[in-house]
Amino acid sequence: MPWVCLLLAGLLEIVWAFSMKQSQGFTRLFPTAITFLTMIGSFALLSVAMQRLPLGTAYAIWTGIGALGAFVVGIVVLGDPVTPARLAAAALILAGLVLMKLSA
Questions:
Q1: Where are the bilayer-spanning segments (predicted)?
Q2: Left if phi > 0, otherwise alpha if psi is -120 to 50, otherwise beta: which for 79?
């Protein structure tokens, strides 16, 4: 169950990162509200996961899911640039997440 909570927390982190971008500096009400609601949910689920998982593992996986997810959303939805260096960096983050999970 802690891994499910951690996965959901990471997914909510992706949502709040995207909605924060859409809020245009918190000047748009709906995206701003989504940002804060999903932040609260993400932190709450992370806290539940941390009751059973080591701090470093939980935090690294949570931030990694958010970072990779935001990277993908940026490319697919927002048209962010795709370069070999950015793809290599994302691959390294993914490799770190897999190693972190295997070591837990």
A1: none
A2: left
